[in-house]
Design a protein that fits this description.
about 625 residues; alpha/beta; 5 domains; five-stranded mixed β-sheet; two-stranded parallel ribbon; 13 strands; about 10% strand
Length: about 625
């Protein structure tokens, strides 16, 4: 071993720092042997419990003790903050931007135990509902499972750490599929699946914790995988997701079983990358035949590639994988709450006001009726009018003082139309937000927030305000916030680039080519159109074309741009300004590469711009 290290140093020119190196042994290694090895190599002995590059070098039976340092970091950070000094909007930012990111590094390598993740989520939930060093927990009005639901479905959009962990591990597993020649892929394949592929591999005997983690991400990768058809020689027709809708075909009939080794290339016309319709109809039924014929074959895709179907560029992303996991998790779906929740977060108001409206619609405000359901011993009567039980509907829409406030705000007539016996408080709020204009929405939400602050001042500080004072405070708060936004918007407008929406003539000596695509569902085709004008804005020439089958909008627009570039190349009009009304296509020309069919078309466009059309450019126009 010492000679190998010496040879490596002499060959690579990189010296190994033995003072930072460590070695641990199995239990069966004799003590004198350990000492001799350590002396020869010049490294110190450890018991395998230390960390290397921030990760545990050995994962034992107790996973909780191994990863305890992650939980300790989160807990220490929570204890260094005081929830009393933070609004819930502030706590939301700290959880999303800081606390949830602490375990990310470990989660990218190891699949943490469910019980361990549950403990971390309980800590985050405790902080969200008001933990601080003096007052331990507070009331948990909602579980973390409900809070981790996306905002448009009634949650707060916090991460489900289990789903996020799987998405992070999936990024490593994706490399086993897309990089078969990498060293780690060869190592794991030789050890765990020498005669099969990653998807059909078994967990194996006595697997490492890293492999166990990667193995559990198979379902995530399987749902997102789609083969991009190049030559078709490496894509099996059976049990592979190569169709447009990623359906995996199974050999069922006698003819299909006979063609058990059928590859995608066998479905092509001889010496041509087009579907062999007659052969396809012979092997498959009508429904499957239509699926195959509606799967486009692009000449721009030259090799078979595994692509991630949830991203436009075909590259795996943790974001899209996490979204897919949560959309397929029955447990998370059942926590989604019906309602127009997106309208709350679209309100042009401070985050703390929107957060309050969300809590109101979730029935998470600590009114006296709700406190009693949580086991808090308190009276139920409303402190302001002392006549009815204090629930949200009475507090905000039935109390006489609240009614006067709504009349002063000019919103009482609208409220009366939705104040139905069958409507809950959240139903009324959703209905009102849909009916009111932007200014009225702002006034409505701020008045709700001020009414709640008035109720708290009455209970905790014994401060009573008139309806006039409440209305004035609401108007003053909204006016101050709008003034602050105007100042900020003016500053942003000075630094922002002006977007030209009208068509402009090209510079002298140049031409402009406007490209567009059309889509016909009835004809199952996509049409392309290009129109060239000179520097005076005069029409020069135009062209149209079409292709089958029908494509999605971005793919069709990209093909239209490529067809226009090839046409311009034939015309030898190299000083060309191309304009498209699809921003994704225009931006993709100058962004990073990808492996999808869409990016194959974009790459051909880039090639033309870099060779035959070097004096041309592509831009977006509305």
């Amino acid at each position: 071993m010492r000679n190998i290290l010496t040879t490596y140093e002499a060959t690579s020119g990189q010296a190994i720092n033995l003072q930072k190196s460590e070695m641990y042994y199995s239990r069966n290694t004799p003590t004198d042997c350990k000492e001799r090895i350590a002396q020869v190599l010049g490294v110190r002995q450890v018991f395998g419990t230390c960390k290397y590059l921030g990760l545990p070098s050995m994962v034992g039976r107790s996973k909780k003790s191994t990863f305890k340092f992650v939980k300790d970091r989160i807990w220490n950070r929570i204890n260094s903050w005081s929830s009393k000094c933070l609004s819930q909007a502030g706590r939301e930012i700290l959880i999303k931007s800081f606390l949830q990111s602490i375990p990310s590094y470990v989660m990218s390598v190891f699949l943490l135990p469910d019980t361990f993740i549950s403990e971390i989520e309980k800590m985050l939930n405790t902080f969200w509902w008001g933990h601080n060093s003096n007052n331990s927990k507070g009331i948990h009005w909602m579980s973390w499972e409900c809070l981790s639901v996306p905002k448009v479905y009634g949650g707060m959009g916090f991460k489900s750490l289990r789903a996020f962990n799987l998405a992070m591990i999936g990024k490593q597993a994706w490399k086993l599929v897309t990089h078969p020649d990498s060293l780690i892929t060869k190592l794991l394949k030789a050890r765990y699946y020498p005669h099969s592929d990653y998807f059909s591999a078994s967990i194996g005997h006595n697997p490492s914790y890293v492999w166990r983690s990667l193995w559990n991400a198979r379902e995530v990768i399987n749902r997102g995988l789609r083969w991009s058809i190049g030559t078709g020689e490496n894509i099996s027709v059976w049990n592979q997701p190569w169709l447009q809708d990623t359906v995996r075909l199974q050999p069922v009939t006698e003819v299909q079983v006979m063609w058990d080794a059928l590859m995608a290339t066998h479905l092509f016309q001889p010496n041509k990358k087009e579907w062999n319709e007659n052969f396809i109809r012979y092997v498959f039924d009508t429904g499957t035949t239509n699926q195959i014929l509606n799967t486009p074959l692009f000449p721009y895709v030259r090799v078979d590639k595994a692509t991630w179907r949830f991203e436009r560029n075909g590259c795996y992303s943790v974001r899209s994988a996490y979204r897919d996991i949560t959309n397929n998790d029955v447990g998370m779906i059942q926590h989604r709450v019906p309602g127009d929740w997106g309208s709350i977060w679209k309100l042009k108001l401070p985050p703390k006001v929107k957060n309050f409206i969300w809590r109101l619609c979730c029935n998470c405000l600590p009114t006296r009726v709700r406190l009693q359901t949580k086991g808090v011993d308190c009276p139920t009567n409303f402190a302001i009018c002392d006549a009815y039980d204090e629930d949200t509907k009475h507090l905000f829409f039935k109390c006489s003082k609240s009614v006067v406030c709504w009349e002063r705000a000019g919103l009482w007539n609208s409220i009366q139309h939705v104040r139905l016996p069958t409507y809950s408080c959240s139903d009324m709020i959703f209905a009102l937000i849909q009916q009111l204009n932007i200014s009225q929405q702002q006034q409505f939400a701020v008045t709700l927030w001020i009414l709640w602050k008035h109720r708290n001042n009455m209970i905790w500080n014994n401060i009573t305000e008139t309806a006039q004072q409440i209305s004035d405070r609401s108007t003053s708060f909204l006016s101050s916030w709008k003034n602050a936004q105007e100042v900020r918007n003016q500053s942003n407008n000075r630094s922002s680039r002006v977007v030209i929406e009208n068509w402009n003539k090209p510079s002298p000596g140049r031409f402009k080519c406007n490209v567009d695509a059309s889509f016909s569902t009835s004809l199952n085709r996509v049409g392309f159109g290009a129109c060239i004008r000179d520097a005076e804005g005069n029409f020069v020439i135009a062209r149209t074309a079409w292709a089958t089958p029908l494509l999605d909008v971005d793919m069709g627009e990209a093909m239209g741009l490529l067809a226009a570039m090839q046409w311009v190349k034939e015309l030898n009009m190299v000083h060309m300004d191309f304009e498209t009304d699809t921003k994704i296509v225009a931006d993709s020309i100058y962004e990073k590469d990808g492996v999808s069919d869409f990016m194959a078309i974009i790459n051909d466009c880039r090639h033309l711009l870099g060779t035959d059309l070097v004096n041309s450019n592509v831009s977006f126009i509305r």
